[in-house]
Amino acid sequence: MIRSIKMVTLLQTLIAAEQGSFHKAGTLLGIPASTVSRRVRSLEAQLGVKLFDRHRHGIRPTAASNAFFKPIRRILDELNTVLINAKTIARGKTGALNIGLYVSPSSGHLRMAIREYKQAFPSVDVQYVEGERSQLMERLNAGSIDVAIVAGHFRSGMHDVVPLWSEKILVAMVATHPLAEKATLTWDDLRKEHILLGRDPGPELRDHLLSRLNASGDLPAIRHSHIGRDFVLSLLDIESDITLLYEADTGARHPGVIYREMADHDGPSLVPYFACWITSNDNPALQHFLDLLRQHKGPQHQPRRARAG
Known about the structure:
The N and C termini lie far apart (64 Å). The chain is rod-shaped and about 105 Å long. The strands form three sheets. Strands 3, 4, 5, 6, 7, 10, 11, 12 and 13 form a nine-stranded mixed beta sheet that branches. Strands 1-2 form a two-stranded antiparallel sheet. It folds into three domains: 2-90, Winged helix-like DNA-binding domain superfamily/Winged helix DNA-binding domain (Arc Repressor Mutant, subunit A), CATH 1.10.10; 95-166 and 271-295, D-Maltodextrin-Binding Protein, domain 2 (3-Layer(aba) Sandwich); 168-268, 3-Layer(aba) Sandwich (D-Maltodextrin-Binding Protein, domain 2), CATH 3.40.190.10. It has helices spanning 7-19, 22-29, 33-47, 63-90, 108-120, 133-142, 202-213, 229-239, 284-295; strands at 52-55, 58-61, 95-101, 124-130, 147-151, 159-174, 184-186, 194-197, 221-224, 243-246, 257-264, 267-268, 270-278. Helices cover 39% and strands 25% of the residues.
């Protein structure tokens, strides 16, 4: 039965009930009163229920129609809400955005970009997924995340990629470590050190370190553990090690741990950031986020061409 009843008939019947007159309903809708009356009679015939008592001054809902109109009004209100929500989702003002990260947003441009996006689109449900780069790429390909934010060397492959900002590479150590006396460190300073690296971006930072040392002379003792950055930082005073990390990871403070910048021959050692996503992803919330990320492409740190990972 539901397929044979037109939405316009239900709407005009409800308006007629609210106006108490086919004439008033027709005037409000901009159509002849006879059109409204004819559609109401058609609906009554389909339902087998008399919805109105007609009299010379207008119409009066019957007892049966009152039970009919109440749930119809509720359904139409819910449908209106659905349509409004659909429109806001299409404009990227609501909906969902899933961001994949293996670099912490504890400080720097990434944190600022996410904060600005949340302020601009508070009704978008933003979810975060942390994982190693390979895991993020798998999730991106499967459609379970909308965008991955990665740092270091990146080959685009099947993804769309936008270069973002670049940030400094830092060394973390306990305040009593001998290298703590230097405000800025060179890569040669690390040749005889014990370096503890965790999961991503640990492998990238290792490759970056070895490329800067050119594999000549003494090389540091590098130890890998399948642990996160916070865990690595918490071990530095126990293991007497140092670790490498990106500038974005320095927002979280650890007692007794300090940071020192790494320097190349011509200035701070920098790593570029990228956002990557699947070309066919038409999520409007993603497009707004990408637009905001592009605004953070600042000239403050220009990325180098050297491989970072």
